[in-house]
Structure formats: C-alpha cells, structure tokens
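Help wanted!
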Amino acid sequence: MKVLKGGLENVPGYTFSAVKAGIRYADRLDYSLIVSDGICCGAGTFTTNRVCAPPVKLSRNRINNPIKAILINATNANACTGEEGYKNTLTLCADIASRLKTEESSVIMSSTGIIGHQLPVKKMMAKHPELIRSLSSDKGKLIPEAIMTTDTVPKMMSVSFSSSEGEFIIGGTVKGSGMIAPNMATLLSFTLTDAPVAKDRLNSIFKRVIDKTLNSITIDGDMSTNDTAIILSPDSGRKISGSDLNNFEDALNFLMWNLSEKLVADAEGGTKSVKIIIKGAQNENDAKKAAKAVAESLLVKTAFFGMDPNWGRIAAAAGSSGVLVDENKLSIYFEDIPLLINGTPVSIDANKLDNILTMADYSVTIDLSAGSSEALVLTSDLSYDYIKINSEYST
Amino acid sequence: MKVLKGGLENVPGYTFSAVKAGIRYADRLDYSLIVSDGICCGAGTFTTNRVCAPPVKLSRNRINNPIKAILINATNANACTGEEGYKNTLTLCADIASRLKTEESSVIMSSTGIIGHQLPVKKMMAKHPELIRSLSSDKGKLIPEAIMTTDTVPKMMSVSFSSSEGEFIIGGTVKGSGMIAPNMATLLSFTLTDAPVAKDRLNSIFKRVIDKTLNSITIDGDMSTNDTAIILSPDSGRKISGSDLNNFEDALNFLMWNLSEKLVADAEGGTKSVKIIIKGAQNENDAKKAAKAVAESLLVKTAFFGMDPNWGRIAAAAGSSGVLVDENKLSIYFEDIPLLINGTPVSIDANKLDNILTMADYSVTIDLSAGSSEALVLTSDLSYDYIKINSEYST
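Answered by r_m:
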C-alpha cells in the first residue's frame, strides 16, 4: 500500500465539480457533484439519530441502487424541514439525473450546515448547468473544500494498493469538526475507488472499517442529523476477491483511520488528539462503553486542554460508565508512564509527563484488569474556542 | 409551610462546628462536624459510580445504624486512595466517636475535593479537640461554607411545616458546582429535621424526593466519586404519620428543589439555569432519557450561553437520545413561545424571544407527541468560565 499525494482526483473513473451557489454565504464553494463514468455499487452508513435530514432518508433509500452521482451541499443541512425538505431533495436530484441522462434513482444527496431552514432550491437549480458543464477529474481537488462547515482545513487522502488485477486506488474526503460522536459516521465522508468490489463484500467491509474508524472518534458527543459515509466502487470489470479483498480492506482501513485523525485534529477549538485506550475489560461492549465515557467526559477533556494529568477524573469517568471497574485493580498510563497502578498512585517524573502533556497527540491507557477486551476512542480536548465557536455560531 | 431565614442552625436538636485544618489550603474552613443531641435515624443516597471514595463506602455501610454524628471535610475527596484511604476514614470517625462517647458505628463521614491524595490524618486529628469543644447550635451557619469546593456561594435553606404534633423544621445545605449529573445525589447534601420520622418512611420519602430534585439536575454530566445526600431525623418521641408525613414530604421536596436550583445557579461558569421539560413521551423512562440528552448536549448548552434559540440542536439532541421521536410531531417552546410546531418552524417575534434568552432562568419545553409522560431536568449553560475553572483546577 502506498500513500499518494492528493485525494479524490487520483481515483480513475470519476469526475467532479464544485460551484459557489450562495446557499447561505456569498463567495464560497458550497455546492458540488461527484459523477462516476459508469455505474457504481455503493455502501453507506448513516446517522442513527431519530431526527434525520431528508437527504439522509433519500440516500439511505437509494444506496442499494446502482449509483451514478452524489450531489452535496454545505452551509444548510436541510434537516427538520419536513415534507418540503424531502421534496426539495427529490427535485434537485431529479434535475441532476435528467441532465446526466441517468436514472433518478441513481443520484443521492448529502447536506450539511444549519438545521431548520429550507434549501434555496431556485438558486441551486440555476447552478446545475455549471455543475454539469465543469465536470472534470481534476476538480476532485475542490470537493474537500466545498463540503466544509466549521472545518478549518479541507481533509482528503488517497492510497493505492496492489492486487492480482493490478494496482487500484482509494481516495476519500471527510468534513466535520463538531456534532461528532462515535455512534455513526458523525459527519460527511465520501470515498471512491476504482477497484471493483462486489456489493455484499463492499457492505460488510465498509461497515467493519467505519466501526473501527469514524465510529471510534468523538469530539463533543453530539450526534448529527446528517451523518453520512458513502463509498462507491465501479460495478464493472472482474470483481476482486480473496487476498485482494484483504488488501482492499487494509488500505481502506488505513485511509479512513487517517481521515478520522484529521477530523479530531481539526476538532472545534481542539488543541489535542488523545487516544483513549481501554484494556482488560470484561467484554468488547464494556471496553467501548468505558472508552466512550472517558472520551466524552467534560472534566477529562478540560484537563487535557489544561495539560493536567488528572487521572482522578479519568478514573471517575471510567467508573461512571456502568461497566465493571474495580478501583483496586485500576491502572492508568499517559503514553508508557504509569500514574496509577492497581489503584495506587505512582510518584512520577514531572518532566517526562510534561513532555507528553504538551504534545498535540498522545495516548491514555486505562487497564481495568477485569478481562481481556480492548477498545480505542480518539477524542479531542475541550477549550475556550469550542465555546466561542458554538456560542457564536448562530441560527 | 414557611421558608425561614438561615439554614441548619434553625433545626433544634443538633450542634455544629467547623475549623480550619489546613487540609489542602491554609486559612479556610475545611473540616466540620454535625452532632445530634440524641440518636437519629438516617437515610442516604450515594454515588452509583463504580469508583467511589472510602467515606462513601463507610457511610453507605453505616447509614442504617443509629446515627449520632457526621464528619465532613472539603478540599480532599479521599477517593482512589485504596485500603489506606479507608483506614483513614475509620480512624477519624473512631476518634470522633470516642470523644463524643458514642458508638464508633454511629459516626459517618463525607469528603469532597481532589481525587487521589491521602488525607493528612495527623493534621485532622489535631483539630478534633477543637471540633468537639466548639460545638454549638448556631455554628450550623458555618457548615455551608466549610463544605464548599469550587462553589462561589454557600447554599442553605430551612423551612417549617405544621403537623398534628406541632411545628417542625427541616434545614439543609448542599455543595457542588461541577461533576454534577442526574444519576445520583451528585454532590454533598446534608439535611436535618427535628421531626421524628420512622426509618422506613424516611428512606422511601427521601428516595422519592432526591429523584425529583438532586437527581434531576445536571451541570456537566460527570458523576462524582463522592456524591452523598444524607438526612437525619431524631429517633425519639412519637413518629409522625398520616397527613403529617405528607406535609413533611412536601416541605422536604420544596427545600431540596430550592437547594437544587441553587446548585445549578452556581454551576461552574454558568450564566443560565434552564429547565428542560419533555412532554408527550411514550413512558417516564423515555421522558427522562430525552430530557437528559438535551440537558447534557454541549451544543445545546453553548447555544444557551450564546443566547441563541437554536432549536435545531435541541431537536438533534432529543433525536439522538434513542427514544421515540418523530420529527414531524416534534414541538419546541422557549417559555410559552413556540419555535417549532409539529416539525414546522414558526416565525417568531425576535424581541419577545430575546427577552427570554437574556433571563437568568427560563424553561424549554419539548413535546414529543408520542405519549403522555413528562420529565424535567434542570441544566446550566456551558461558558468560557467552565473551561477556565476546569482546565486550571489542577492536580
């Protein structure tokens, strides 16, 4: 597997466009389109929030169809917009389908941005000719920027992997820096490959990978109404199989984990990315629950921001998760430095610890000594800027 | 029922003392004692955190004994301190018991403050003669101050209620402004009464009241290792019964709700107290779950701080709680102003809404229209000062 420079534009078989439609703000790329040369198999994971946006409903309904195109807008989530919001999604997709001379059912849509406002459909429709006209493979570079909301940097990556059918490429882009919690895709994520993967394998591999990557990060514990992660693979040529599929999964996992790290690194107001590793849990479910409780504790996250090795808050958060925690068996490490071993505080070398606490990313390992299951959740710290961004970002 | 001036000092039958023991800081009241003239029945609720402090274990073990005294220290939680921490609690209580010439098993203890440090037992023992010597009924005034940690104001209250046996008094004090979540008493809370209530009635009434008061508030969703709420009632005289017990419960409920409001009003960095009211839930459990999800959402809490009527975040938080939420039936009100009715945004009078958003306390009602159950959780906003307090409060 090789990491390539750039993102989506490296994947053969797709074209892209992005325009300034003025959906909420003037003069920013906010409306974009991904079109496959042929027809694709798709797999997707979507928010489990009971309140979910029309584009999520539409894409969830259509993801098992043959897929030709993904239409994406930023700055307006088209969420909590009722019947009218759903009709707007249908209208936009239908028009794109007709211009692409493809089935209406092969176009899906994702939206991100403010909740509770109808999309400016006329404005958006007016941009459709430009979206179609400007389609080209190198415009893949524009997609990461066109889907951003409070993100401070566009996020993309691409890798190549070998198979018995030759070299294939996977390219991906993600957006999201708040309303992120490990209970679904937690954001918008679009991944493309030129490797032909059978639909059922694509589904199972994508689910496994998302579980270990996008579903294992948290920024603020808030679950979005619009979370969507989609992968497309051409429905043509000989499907890859056997060890080639393993190579594909490894490469996809590598790519999605790296994109997940980019998300947490760009967390709203975040200054740290901290891997919360639970070891020695009774079972995997317990491990995840405890990791999530620590990763989402406001007191733990403010301590990370304050560069304070406050293992007491970590122990309290793990204990509050409801999983079996015996404080007399609990051990806590910052990187490889133990702060607590079997419930007993360890005297520590403050300099060594300071070196860790000032790093932009490090790991905290909590050993429950109750079993052999493990889990990892990647979290950010909680800073003044998170408050600033979210108290000033207004309806 | 009448609200009295002052707090614990109004309750006949108890004496108090508080001293500066220098447990963590010089020159502050940090060690205090409550002693009943006779022997009391007690009832208590304690943290459900798996990591709980030695004083919690001791008090939980002893709360059903005849109770004579409560020993309390601030600034050191004596949590995550293992065997030694438990022995220290035993030692301190035993010495107080012997000085009071009472059973060791009739003294309970509460601690609050930093986690993971052993108590300075010698320093504390040295203050025992002074604690005993200075016991007096008017020193009840000092307890609220002596138990504070990051609280900015001492919190106390007292009420009187009538019964067929005459007038009785209930006095209470609470502390806590962070690590507060509605899954147990979430703090230290001491309530005294001169009304003789039978042990089993005291238990059931206290449990019901705590559920509706201290267990229905949240500040940061973090559950402490030391949460303790205790009530004492004299085990002497004719026990009150019948409608007198109802009067007692009403008065206790009123007192505890008011103390709960004081806690949220003094939330770390808080500028708002917001009542999150869920209506129309399928069952009470769902109502509580949804209320808690909204009350603990960082995005909702930062919006309250930013005085932004961001009902989209409220809908998203309710939807993410896992309870049945149909967005087409969802209605959201700030006080009596609807922002969303049956899933459709309502155009609002911005001035009227601004008047609400600038108030120090108001209610947000979320009607799920899925049933007839209700719940209320009182929450604070999330401000820069929460980050300041918790990133700078250091181990």
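OP: Thanks! One thing I noticed: Chain B touches chain A through 69 residues (CB under 8 Å).
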